[in-house]
Amino acid sequence: MIRKLSTGVLALLLGGNAMADWAVNMPKGVTQLSAETYEIHMVIFWWCVAIAVVVFGAMIYSLINHRKSKGAVPASFTHSMTAEVIWTTIPVVILLIMAVPSAELMIKLEDTRDPDLTVVITGYQWKWHYSYQGEDVAFYSSLSRPSMAARRLGSGIDPSTVENYLLDVDNRLVVPKDAKVRVLLTSNDVVHSWWVPDLAIKKDAIPGFINETWFKAEVAGVYRGQCAELCGMDHGYMPIVVEVVEPEAFQAWLDNEKGDATPMANVNGELK
Q1: Which of 5, 127, 223, 269 has the fewest CB within 10 Å, making it most exposed?
Q2: Residues 6+ apart with CB under 8 A from 195
Q3: Residue 247: which residues within 8 A CB-CB, separation 6 or more?
Q4: What predicted TM-score, i.e. pTM, was given to this entire model?
Q5: Which SS3 state, helix, strand or coil, does residue 126 take?
Q6: 150-196: pLDDT as tens digits
């Protein structure tokens, strides 16, 4: 039994798909703020690792070298003012070192002034609605038909054969590369959460309230996310897909959505 279990675990770890989908760290993303968020995350992570090494190292050393069998005897003092000052001052200094750059980044994340484009996003059970302010372009974005068909019980469709299963939509949010996009988030029913890891955005959509955030994607491509707030029966079936294209391609897409005869744009910024 143990041998079978070990074999199964080893096969799981060596499986290509499992390793490709398994990640323990946050992505660097495709915006300047996502890169800065990643850097601060890693700095604080290594600070925590260093603190853990020092604290647990001291504990393990004390357990090994100051045990009764080695003749250790309890200390006679009740407290040490010097030790108390040291173990109070050092954490305060460390927290200040962490807090200053974190506060600066949080201010940047909330600075939605002077956007190049504003998109109003409304959460529904269980889809998203996107409206481009001042452009007369609006549409719903729902789970793609292939994923919708495969998720049904008894469909006979193997989900592994569906590309981007549960992470694809019928209508993508299309935005231009290198443009500051302000996002206004709200909900029409319950609390949802708009989460796209590559953009370093996770913001709640709350009924009767408008949340603000922004991003400026520096790399053209397709970036996927999901609703990250439990919002009902089909919570797991309202993905988010953001397509970043070149500015010229975005304008062509926008004209097409308005009903012009301009050809659409694909993810590489080339015209179809």
Answers
A1: 5
A2: 201, 202, 203, 225, 226, 227, 228, 240
A3: 176, 177, 178, 179
A4: 0.76
A5: coil
A6: 888 888 898 889 999 999 999 999 999 999 999 999 999 999 999 99
| pLDDT in the model for residue 251 | 93
* Residue 200 CB contacts under 8 Å (≥ 6 apart), including other chains: 29, 31, 33, 34, 37, 38, 109, 215
Two structure tokens written together for 105? 């980044």
What is the per-residue burial (b if ≥16 Cβ within 10 Å, else e) of 110-134?
eeeeebebbbbbbbbbbbbbbbbee
Full set of structural domains in the chain with CATH: 32-65+78-109 (no CATH), 117-257 (2.60.40.420)
pLDDT beneath 70: ranges in the chain:
1-22, 260-272
Locate tokens 């004390």: which residue? Answer: 62
Locate 208 and state its tokens: 């009767």
Given the DSSP bridges, would you call strands 192-196 and 221-227 parallel, antiparallel or unpaired? antiparallel
In this structure, which amino acid lies at residue 254?
L
Count of other CB atoms within 10 angstroms of residue 216 = 20
